[in-house]
Structure formats: C-alpha cells, structure tokens
Amino acid sequence: MASPVFFCSHTPARCNKVERVRTSFSAWLSLLAILCSFPSLFAAPPAAKPIIVAYVFPQHALIHDGDIAAQKVTRINYAFANIKSGLIVNGFENDDRNLAALVALKKQNPSLTVLVSVGGWLWSGAFSDMALTQASRAAFIASVVEFVGRNQLDGLDIDWEYPGLAGSTTHFRPEDKQNYTLLLKELRSRFDELEKQFHRPLYLTIATGASPEFLAHTDMDKVQQYVDTVNLMAYDYYEPDSDAITGHHAPLFPNPADPKKVSADASVREYEKAGVPPGKIVLGVPFYGHVWGQVPEANHGLFQPGKNVKNAWVQYGGVDGLLKNGFVRYWDPVAKAPYLYNAEKQTFVSYDDAESLVLKCKYVLEGKLRGVMFWDYESDPTGTLLDAVDAGLNKNSAAY
What does the pLDDT read at residue 17? Predict the structure, then answer.
C-alpha cells in the first residue's frame, strides 16, 4: 500500500508538523499491514471444549480401579452427601474411601474435577430449613468448606429437589425461592475466597428440574450469576407412577401426538428465556428407562394407557436382555427417541440409546450449550452410552 503524499504551502514549522503527521501515519499503516498478515490475531477465541459430567452413585458399594473411564469424563459429581442438623455429612458408609478413589483418578486425567453432590430426590427435605436464615446458611457453608478441604474436592453440586415445591417431601416454604439464590450467592462468595487460599478453582454447580414450575419457583437469571453450570435434568418427563399414559421420558423434540408436548429442547429454550446463558446449560441425559405394563398394542404402545408395574425402572445395561426376550425397538423420528414394546407382555419401555445420545450431542454443539451430564454411571456397565457421548461431543466438536 502506497503512503499518502502531503503538500505543504505553509511556514517551515507548520511543514515540519505535517511531515511528522505523515511519518506517524505511514508507521501506523506499516504496523497495520504487519498485523493483518497474522489473521489469527483477530480470530475469535476458540469455544470452550464441551464438558461431560458423570453422576457417580455407588451407594453402599466401593469404587474399584477400572470402574470409571476417567479419560472420557470432564467432571464427576459424587452422589450423594446428606444434610443433618443443617450441615453437610456423608450419605453412605464408604463415601470417604470412594471420594479418595475418585480424586486419585486425576493421575490418569489431570484435568478431571471431582465434586460432591448434596441432596437429591430423597434427601432434599432439609434444604428449606438449612437455607432459611443467614446464620443457618453460614453454618452449612462452613461445613462444606471443611468437607471439600478434607476430601480434596473441586467443589459442590447443589441438588435441591425442589425449592418451593414438593419433591419426595412436603417440607418446603415460599421463602425457598429467595433463599435458594442467597445460598448460592454466599457459597460463591466463600468459594472465591477459598480459591486464593487453595490456589485452584472451586466449582459451584446445580442440578435443576426441567419444568416451568421449577423456573417459576426460582430466580434463574440471578442464580446463574453464581454457578459455573446448570445441570438441566432433561428426563423423567413421563413416569409410570405419575402418568397414566406412556410417553418418552427424555425426548429431544416434542412429538405433535404427545399430549404434554414436552422435550429437552423446550426446556432448554425456557431456561434461556429465564436468563440462563446457553454456555452455562449442561444437558442432562438418562442412562436408564421407565417401564409401563398393560399397554395396548396401538402405535407400538406409544402414548397409550398404561399401568405402573413392579420394577418400573430399568438400567440401560439391561436393555440388551429385553431385546433378546421379545421386546422390539422402535424409533420416533420426530422426538428423536427410541422405545421398546413387547406385544405379548403388553409392556412399554422409554429410554435413551447411542443413536439418540449422538443426536443430543449434536444439539448441544449446535446450540453452544456447555456440555452433557448423565445419571448415572452405574446404569451402563457396558460403557456404550458414555462412548456415544464421548464420540458425539469430542469427535464432532471440531466441525462447530
């Protein structure tokens, strides 16, 4: 690029000033040319690598070497710690040993983070009292600091099911809505202080319900400011103990024939509308299925009347056995969801498999969500579903 020419008909001093301007302008153009020869300097920063969050729920069992594919997960949320007398405590007798085993996995995967998840469906009854006052929250937070430090963990996952709503317990109050926010705000503040002391990040995450009712009883636009990720439980949309008809319990998109019109996509959109950035939403997927009995054969049992049955829950690890014993797999091309039906036994099963999970991973990448989480690791000892998520996110993310 040629430098511009300046003509001066003024005094020598004025001409010198113009010459300095010309020289400075030429230098600026030269610098710009150099910078433009390196387009990577102006490129947008690379998108954060999508994360894979595994909920590990051994209960009374011990975790052994080889039980967890540490290289295929980003974060482990160990479930569950409990709340007793307002303080976080172990939930099961082997928790200390299991947490140590999980932390030791960092030798295989140095970027792995290990959090403890507190509460859950059965143990959320103590949240409302614990979060009620500043003093009660402070006592809980102090116990969390001790728990995280003693076990060398990377943070805490709050699984309150649900603020201001009945879950497995009826112990809740209207104040839960504001206290949920305050609890997370005060935890984040304390974690920020501890990060300077520990010289490492401390993560604060939440597991959240995929319903408009959950959003109505929380201030997610405020909550999202204090948490690293929102682990959206986009499953259990249909359950045999509460739904008199069958349905997909984790559809990606709504089927027009579905009376409830539920889907993971609808929940994600509702969360975004409520103020949660896509980059903080982690899409939850199930490694288990729901079972209905006495289901008529119409539409292979989908959206048909059904009854709750004994053992109305099946791990993905048991699906292969069902397929070998009279069950047939069907695919809903609209909902992007598989299901099983046994005409002889009149039994219907809703679940996720490798095909549906790869499509959910594509959805996460296209929507620029933070990643995928799954409940729970123990439900698929074959590793098929984790392999599908790993491939769906990590092998395909280069295209986005």
Answer: 45
Q: Which residues pair with 341 in a beta bridge?
A: 328, 348
**What percentage of the chain exceeds 70 in pLDDT?**
87
**CA separation for the pair 302, 292 (Å, rounded):** 10
- Please provide the DSSP assignment of 120-161 as one string: -STT-TTHHHHTSSHHHHHHHHHHHHHHHHHHT--EEEEE-S
Scanning the structure block, which residue is given the tokens 């709503």? Answer: 165
pLDDT > 70? residue 47: no
Distance between CA atoms of 293 and 258, rounded to whole angstroms?
19
Name the phi and psi angles at 117, rounded to 5: -100, 130
Q: Quick check: is 161 catalytic? A: yes
Q: How many helices (H) and strands (E) does the chain have?
A: 11, 14
CB-based contact 204:225 (threshold 8 Å): no
Q: Which of 4-13, 142-151, 338-347 has the lowest mean pLDDT?
A: 4-13
Task: Answer yes or no: is pLDDT of 31 > 70.
Answer: no
Q: Which of 161, 272, 297, 366 is catalytic?
A: 161
- Side by side, the strands of the sheet bearing 307-315 are 307-315, 288-293, 347-350, 337-342, 328-332
What is the CATH code for 51-287+352-399? 3.20.20.80
Backbone angles phi, psi at 347, to 5 degrees: -120, 135
Mean pLDDT of 280-297: 98
CA 99 to CA 82: how far, in whole Å?
15
- Can you give the pLDDT at residue 311? 87
